[in-house]
Every structure is written in structure tokens, then in C-alpha cells.
Design goal:
By secondary structure, the protein is mainly α. It has a single domain, classed as Rhomboid-like (Rhomboid-like fold). It is built from six helices and no strands. The protein is globular and about 45 Å long.
């Protein structure tokens, strides 16, 4: 990975620096989710209104905020580890690329939920983004023909594959399987949209 610039002036981003930056970003992201849930509980769950209620035009403004709001500490706790791990792996490929992929996933997932979620539901949480990052990490290495990326995708699939498949089941009551599925598709799309060229030897 190199910083943007002309071919003659670009400098490499050291792996250690890249890992530290990715770690800081994800710890900060997760800390924000917990802080928002503390505020939500302290305010009598006033932030829950930022969830997405489908097909109401006024709810379109909540497409992005909904990805940062949760329904209780158990909800945010369940999302903490997968978001930390998958976000860290994805961010290792470059912070701008990671943030662009997250933006695509969050917006696509939120709009999809707004369109297809069952009537009289309120959908919120980072799980749509998590499913998107799963798809992004799983496919990026193959799309870019990068051995380390392929290994990372296979390890993630081996460890979490069954769990993520279960999250796509319509039998899960009280869980937005539609949001999970749309997030996954958006993550796969992001792997193609934001792909880098295959690594070559100088």
C-alpha cells in the first residue's frame, strides 16, 4: 500500500504503522457505539428513534445513524468483537479504501432495509455493516489476487462462516435478516468497486 502521489514520489506505508492505525480506528469506532448506547439508556432510549422505519420518507435521514444505534447493551456487545476483528482486517488494506467501503455498505444496507423491512418495524445496529465487512474481507483477496488477502478471507470464513449463514435465516425472530443479506451483498460489491490491482514485484 502506498500513499497517493506520483509514481516517483509515493512512499510505502509500513505494515506496523498500518496495523496501529487500523487498530485505533476500530477501537474508536466501537467505543463510540458503546458511548451512544450509554447515552441511549440514560435518556430512556431516546436514540432508538434513529432506527429505520420502512417506507416512511422522513426516515431516510436515519439510514446512516441507524448503523450506530443499538437496542440495549446486549445488542452492542454481540456486535463488538466481529466489528473489531473484521474492521481491523479490512482497514489494513488502507484507511481511505476501508472508509469508502464502509460508507457504501452502510448507505446501501440502510436504503435496502428502508425498502424491504417488514411494516411497523424499527431496525438499527451495526450488524448490516458487519455482514458487509465479512463479504468484503472474504472476497477482496480473490478479487485482487493477493495471497495474504485470500488467506485472511478463508480464515474468516472458516471461523465465522456458519454463524453468518445462520444470521441470514428468516427463521430468526426479532433479527433483520434482510439487513444482514443486503449488507453482505453490499460488502461483496465493495470488494469489486474498491479493488486494488494485484501485487507485483518491483
Amino acid at each position: 500500500m502506498t500513499y497517493e502521489g506520483s509514481p516517483g514520489t509515493a512512499r510505502k506505508w509500513p505494515a506496523g504503522e498500518r496495523a496501529v492505525t487500523a487498530g485505533k480506528v476500530m477501537v474508536g469506532w466501537v467505543a463510540l457505539l458503546w458511548l451512544l448506547e450509554v447515552v441511549d439508556v440514560a435518556s430512556g432510549h431516546a436514540l432508538d428513534r434513529f432506527g429505520i422505519q420502512p417506507r416512511d420518507p422522513s426516515e431516510l435521514v436515519d439510514v446512516v445513524p441507524a448503523a450506530f444505534i443499538h437496542f440495549g447493551f446486549g445488542h452492542v456487545a454481540a456486535n463488538t468483537v466481529p466489528l473489531l476483528v473484521l474492521g481491523f482486517i479490512a482497514a489494513l488494506s488502507g484507511l481511505r479504501r476501508f472508509l469508502a467501503a464502509c460508507a457504501l455498505i452502510v448507505v446501501a444496507d440502510g436504503l435496502g432495509v428502508w425498502l424491504v423491512a417488514p411494516t411497523h418495524t424499527n431496525t438499527a445496529g451495526a450488524s448490516g455493516l458487519i455482514f458487509g465487512l465479512f463479504g468484503f474481507v472474504l472476497l477482496s483477496g480473490f478479487v485482487e489476487r493477493r495471497p495474504l488477502g485470500i488467506v485472511a478471507g478463508l480464515l474468516v470464513a472458516a471461523y465465522w462462516g456458519t454463524t453468518f449463514l445462520a444470521g441470514l435465516s428468516p427463521a430468526n425472530e426479532g433479527v433483520s435478516w434482510q439487513g444482514h443479506l443486503i449488507g453482505l451483498v453490499a460488502g461483496v460489491a465493495a470488494a469489486f468497486v474498491f479493488r486494488r490491482g494485484p501485487r507485483t514485484q518491483p
